[in-house]
Write a structure and sequence with these properties.
Shape of chain A: globular
CATH class of one domain in chain A: Alpha Beta
Protein name (chain A): Nitrate/nitrite transport system ATP-binding protein
Distance between the termini of chain B: 25 Å
Subcellular location (chain A): Cell membrane
GO cellular component, one term (chain A): plasma membrane
Membrane topology (chain A): Peripheral membrane protein
Strand order of the largest sheet of chain A: 6-7-8-3-9-10-11
Structural class of chain B: mainly alpha
Order of helices and strands of chain B: HHHHHHHHHHHH
Pfam families (chain A): ABC_tran (PF00005)
Order of helices and strands of chain A: EEEHEEEHHHEHEHEEHHE
CATH class of chain B: Mainly Alpha
Number of helices of chain B: 12
Oligomer: heterodimer
Structural class of chain A: alpha/beta
Shape of chain B: globular
Largest interface: A-B, 22 and 18 residues
Bound molecules: adenosine-5'-diphosphate, magnesium ion
Strand content of chain B: under 5%
Amino acid sequence: MSNRFLSIEGLSKSYPSKSGELVVFEDVNIGIDKGEFVCIIGHSGCGKSTILNVLAGLDTPSSGNVIMDGKEVSGPSLDRGVVFQNYSLLPWLTTLQNVAFGVKARWPKWSKDKVNEHSRRFLEMVGLGHSLQKKPSELSGGMRQRVSIARAFATSPKLLLLDEPFGALDALTRGIIQEELIKIWAETHQTVFMITHDVDEAILLADRILLMTNGPQARVAESVKISIPRPRSRAEIIETPAYYKIRNYLVNFLVARSGNLSGSSGSAASETREVDPTLLSSEADTTTSKEPAPPRPRAVNNY
Amino acid sequence: MASLNVKAVIVSLLILLVGLGVWEALNQPPAASAEMTEYERLMGGADQEARVPPPSQVLSHAFDELSDPFYDAGPNDKGIGIQLAYSLYRVLTGFIAAALVAIPLGFLIGMSPLMYKALNPFIQVLRPISPLAWMPLALFVIKDSEQSAIFVIFICSIWPMLINTAFGVANVRKDWIRVAQTHELGALKTAFLVILPAAAPTILTGMRISIGIAWLVIVAAEMLVGGTGIGYYVWNEWNNLDLNSVIFSILMIGLIGMLLDLVLGSLAKLVKYEE
Ligand SMILES: Nc1ncnc2c1ncn2[C@@H]1O[C@H](COP(=O)(O)OP(=O)(O)O)[C@@H](O)[C@H]1O
Ligand SMILES: [Mg+2]
């Protein structure tokens, strides 16, 4: 574990409460390789954002540590770019200035032209080349999130952290931006750690999906490998049989098992199980969906 | 929109005309031909003097004054322009000095919950003091009426700016601070690139309130310390029973006050942002 690009070791977070301590999550161990795209799914309140904020250096764990590229993470750094759900653009700056803000911070010695040129390139990558001079208030939610993604990618961080970046967007916009994210990720091959509550989104984007049990005392119970070959597109991915196997597996976890597993932190249970649903025999494949998946699945969100 | 504006202008003009008309009609000097009553005869016709002058007189007086606003014929006879310039000088000096203290201090208070709590009682006690109450103390300590007036302006301008700056800084959205943090901005850069622009509209609101109060207070302060300035001028003309000048200077005070607010208002527009 410790020789991976990013390793999270024995992480826990608890808050003092009236009845002693509230342990949000405990004994979380995650390893991520360079260039990997990892999604984490779990019910709301299980501590996903807290883990991400610890990775970002914006929050401190109660115990455990995070090591990236051989160095312990302490405090925020440009090596770790963050995209928040609410975009976090500076509203008094234009689109271009918002991205340039990040680029300038990253390369303070660059000339103004170089900064703008670089920023423009990334805004074009997310299809915003025509809105450079607009203020965030003049942009739709989807466009704002694109600016935010462009800003994060433009600073080429070693690790990109995305906290439900598309959670506030309508399904149509979300689909478009997901594909843009795939494109920009394919070009840059960043290491990405992303929180989502959208199972389909996770399958489309991730190499691996981490499943968290419900809090309190949440854990990362399983690490699900997504073996669907790349490049993936939303239209083609639903044609692959593996897609439904994985999807059913994930939905089953969230609906049936995430609650049962929680709190039962015996020494054996605290291991993160590695799973490839496509390799499971169909009886090991779980209860909810023996029947073939519906022909036109709608995204099951809000898990 | 345009038609609404046009209508508003027309209504404003109508109200102005009616108002001036009523004022004019009610304040005509008694016709020379009319026979004086016994009372008037006893009063030596002084009645005429005691009337508020009608707008026609005020306007013609205003025209005279404004055609030579900067004449200077000794300490008790200076043009309205000179008097206003004195007042403006005091207001702006006191206001700018207050801004130089209040904005950095407000920043500190807004950034530090400790300083906020520690300084709050002082602010709460000092703020409600009428600025003019400081005048005797200022005169005693500073021993200069000019600088005392400026000090009074300083003390009355400081509170709205201080409180608004602290409030604006303390309430900068957490997300934006996080943006600064994740981009490894130092304290100084965070202050200037994120907190200042984020809080600027609130700070400007404070400045706007301050300059309004300062302009209110300067008139009273100058009535007290005398010598020069529009406040002194009004009081002096009252002593001369020159109501034309009194009314004229009242109007000028309103006009300059409006201009000051307009300037701050357009500055506020520059830093405004839509979330
Ligand atoms: N300051 C705090 N005091 C007590 N509990 C907190 C505090 N901040 C967060 N929590 C708890 O931590 C849990 C995890 O929050 P979060 O990481 O935002 O979850 P997620 O992103 O998975 O929805 C929540 O259940 C929340 O109640
Ligand atoms: Mg969250």
